[in-house]
Design a protein that fits this description.
The chain is α/β, with parallel strands linked by helices and 294 residues long. The chain has one domain (2-16, 49-290): Divalent-metal-dependent TIM barrel enzymes (TIM Barrel). 36% of the residues lie in helices and 14% in strands. The chain has helices at 2-14, 40-43, 58-68, 95-107, 123-136, 150-160, 179-186, 208-214, 247-256, 276-290; strands spanning 45-49, 72-74, 111-112, 114-116, 140-143, 163-167, 192-197, 219-224, 226-227, 237-238, 262-265.
């Protein structure tokens, strides 16, 4: 994934042009000691990241989401937009082209309220990402801001009215493998929150339940992901419910925190024949676990 992601980011940053053819960190209403008023089955916005279907272009990814019966999606700016757009990444498209992608989304009855973006070390690149996010009309961008740009990106987020959900990868790839770093970023930056990628923390020896507790009240988005073992960043993800992540305990903790945001299935690896079958399996698992929450 790392090599593929890096190459897509480079393409996004260097190719340009149009290819047509509230202020608080705490988005939840109480801390983890409160009695929850959230009904997960109704209030959690359940969907899938389009990175899950990165083996196909954007239109075909939407087809798979439609086949899975989900509503909420999190696109990313490094996804191929498809032949109509000369296979350019979404990050290379002009507003008119993005409008066409939005039409595709609307035609399938899907909803986009978060977008995964990647900028470089310049504020211009981040402004470009927020411009794209604004065209999509999202509430949050999921990303990993450079450590020396927290103030700038927080100000940019405030100006655009779009919150930043700080995502975690593993140690050696991301500064945010340790939730303590994320907490440092949140301090004094009212437009920052958290995207909790549950399957990446174990690769760095972090227990996801511990991280979720530590980040209580700040989690806006969850990436639903599992992994087979701890302390091995080379591992590929596995189907949710078959690895080391304790989802029943995490779901109970999120409910206790009054979490009412987005939970997206995300696969990094690609199963033989694509990930649609595994996504359907994970939907069944998720629904079963959520139905048990009291």
């Amino acid at each position: 994934m790392k090599k593929l992601l890096a190459s897509l980011i480079v393409a996004m940053l260097f190719v340009t042009g149009c290819n047509n053819g509230s202020s608080s960190n705490n988005q939840n209403t109480s801390d983890s000691t409160s009695t929850s008023s959230v009904d997960p089955a109704k209030d959690w916005k359940f969907g899938v990241t389009l990175w899950t279907f990165h083996d196909v272009d954007f239109p075909h990814a939407l087809d798979r989401v439609d086949s899975a019966g989900l509503t909420y999606i999190e696109p990313n700016t490094f996804h191929s937009a498809g032949p109509e757009f000369k296979d350019s990444t979404i990050g290379q498209l002009c507003p008119a082209s993005i409008s066409k992608l939005k039409d595709m989304i609307n035609q399938k009855g899907l909803k986009v309220e978060t977008l995964y973006v990647v900028g470089d070390s310049t504020i211009a690149s981040w402004k470009k990402q927020f411009d794209i996010a604004k065209e999509f009309g999202v509430k949050y961008v999921t990303t990993e801001p450079p450590l020396n740009m927290w103030d700038q990106i927080d100000s940019l987020a405030g100006a655009y009215g779009i919150k930043v959900a700080i995502h975690d990868h593993w140690k050696g790839f991301s500064h945010y493998w340790n939730p303590d770093t994320t907490l440092m970023a949140l301090k004094g930056h009212p437009n920052f929150g958290v995207c909790a990628d549950l399957g990446h923390w174990p690769k760095s020896g972090i227990h996801p339940l511990d991280a979720v507790k530590k980040l209580s009240g700040h989690i806006l988005v969850v990436h639903l992901k599992d992994v087979a073992a701890y302390n091995d960043p080379t591992l590929k993800d596995v189907i949710v419910g078959t690895g080391v992540v304790k989802f029943p305990e995490i779901f109970a903790e999120l409910k206790k925190q009054n979490f009412n945001g987005y939970i997206y299935i995300e696969r990094d690896s690609v199963e033989p024949g694509g990930n649609l079958a595994s996504v359907k399996q994970e939907i069944k698992y998720y629904n079963g676990q959520v139905s048990k929450l009291k």
